[in-house]
Write a structure and sequence with these properties.
The chain is built from one helix and no strands. The protein is an all-alpha fold. The chain is rod-shaped.
Amino acid sequence: MTTLEREVGNLDARMGAVEQELQAIRHDVREIRDALVQARGGWRMLALVMSLSLTLGAVLGRYLPVLLRG
């Protein structure tokens, strides 16, 4: 085996390792993206629940004393 063939074999092995690492990175990035998408949906739901609670509290605060007097 010549030096050139040995270098090509070495580079081929290194390229295979780089491709495996790239696949792992892609997988990790997809997981991070999915987590961010879920978190964004969670924040929207939290904002909706908070706004409904505040609206209900304001309505009760305004009309409950009137209803209790009547």
